[in-house]
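Sequence only, no structure available. Ideas?
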Amino acid sequence: EEAFAFYRSVFQTEYNGPIARFSDAPPNPECPPLSEADANLILHIELPTLAGHMLMGTDAPDSMGFQCRPGTNVYLNLEPDTREEADRLFQALSAGGKVEMPMQDMFWGAYFGSLSDRFGVQWMINCTQPK
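Reply:
I predicted one. Tokens follow.
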């Protein structure tokens, strides 16, 4: 939830619909009852990002059998329309995180940078607007 509140401030948008919590789902007789902490976790959340794209998420606690381990297997790529928006997104997402490659002109003709945000999520910003 903290991560999505942060992303909401970065993308300057509002959630698409209400946040669904695990407590909103009907009880499953084949599963043990939810703890109070697990019941309050996010089952589904949607946030518009750029050009109509939607960032969706769910909590994945170990107590429910998830084996989620953050790693280096995925980058989220954003394609802002302007260099100014690319710089704004890069600065906002990298706050408290780690810059891997600062925004710069690349050999393939794009203005590009990459980072890991403060939640360990890896991002690439790729803007094709000419200088």
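The mean pLDDT is 91.
Hope that gets you unstuck.
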